[in-house]
Specification:
With about 290 residues, the chain is mainly alpha-helical. It has one domain (about 10-285). It has helices spanning about 10-15, 35-60, 70-85, 90-115, 120-130, 150-185, 195-235, 240-285. The protein is globular. The model has no long low-confidence stretch (mean pLDDT about 90).
Length: about 290
Amino acid sequence: MAASEQGPTSGEYIVHHLTHWQNKAQTSVVDFTVFNIDSIFWSTLLGVIGCFLLWKAASKATAGVPGRFQAAVEMLVEMVDAQAKGIVHNANSRKLVAPLALTVFVWIFLLNAMDMLPVDLLPWIWERIYGAMGHDPHHAYMRVVPTADLSITMALSLGVLIVCLVYNVKIKGVGGWIHELFSAPFGSHPLLWLPNFAMQIIEFVAKTVSHGMRLFGNMYAGELIFMLIALLGGGWTLSATGLGLAALHIIAGAAWSIFHILIIVLQAFVFMMLTLVYIGQAHDAH
């Protein structure tokens, strides 16, 4: 990772940690054939883990006194179900929407929780593996917080948009939804069709972009703060100033980690709630 024998500068350290492992060399031009392999890998792995944990809880559920794991999952399921009932009033739709919201919460919580690992741990392991494969370890890039990658959060929000469009058609019918696109929110007069349609498109785009950007912004900022705190520890020496930096690194790292637990849970909850709200709005006629 170092650019010289003296080690990387602060800027080089941060840039290295903010660079994705991609299938192509990074370019300044948008290339839709470039993928962030690290984000895809960790998102897929944690999605499988999340599904496995939920399946494990369901398969081990008993009618008797539940264990700690079962009790925690039951509390989570009841919380999500209560929120779904309060927002999506169609009982038939909730059969799919409630499990979807539960999956979204668990998945995003696990993605966010990767931020709690030591900043250099997994990148350091990847550097050793990459070097053992005969490559230059200085070019071993690995970002492990998928929700700090805009492409992942926007993909999640686009998935929610697709679900909303499906329910718009399912609940209102193709004709009913097209009529709504051109008659709401200003009225059904022919002169208002174009403004209505423009406002509907703007609403869909604004919801989708803000949904993904909110999660990305919070997690990206949290990841960056962990890197800045790590730089404090990297500057310690056997001197009063160096030992002070080491102590500040420990105190700041512990304080931010404790606070970040709230952010991890809150962002997963907010994303889940907005998912329910947007799907609920797809059921409502204007």
